[in-house]
Fold this sequence. Notes:
Blueprint: H1 5-11, H2 19-45, H3 47-52, H4 55-82, H5 93-122, H6 147-162, H7 166-186
Amino acid sequence: xxxxAAMVQLFGYVDVTDSxxxxxxxxxxxxxxxxxxxARWEHKTRAFSQVFGSPHAACYCLGAVILVLxxxxxxxxxxxxxxxxxxxxxxxxxxYYSGLAISAVGTLFVISSFxxxxxxxxxxxxxxxxxxxEKVTSFPxxxxxxxxxxxxxxIYLGWSLMHASPAGLLLTAVVAISYTIxxxxxx
Length: 187
């Protein structure tokens, strides 16, 4: 059996009805839904490639929109964390530095994924007909499937620990669930 006492105590610190928390959840769920719907629509219709005059220009535009949406998501995540109470038992140096280390590993995965894939590989170029020569198997893909998704999740987990935020931990779970669904959809 699972002991839910710790989870009940943790969620006692989170007001899931707070408007900032709800906006954060919606922005987290929206992002992968948006880019998957847009990319599949492009793949079927080539509408963006026609509007922008080339698949590369369309892919770069989608990538820019995704980056802006990710900034909005991170802002909403941070504001939701700041508006909720901290977990006093976690507001110590060891928690902060553990979170910092987890965020650093996540950042390593995100940046190394981007460098291995390039801009069009990262931002769904295959849906625009921009294909890579071969499947990327170098680091971090050699040790982890979907390292950009799990690196991003680790960054949010680390950020939550650095701020001793139960709301951040719950939002990180929403990030992980959203990416898990995205992986199922994309696979």
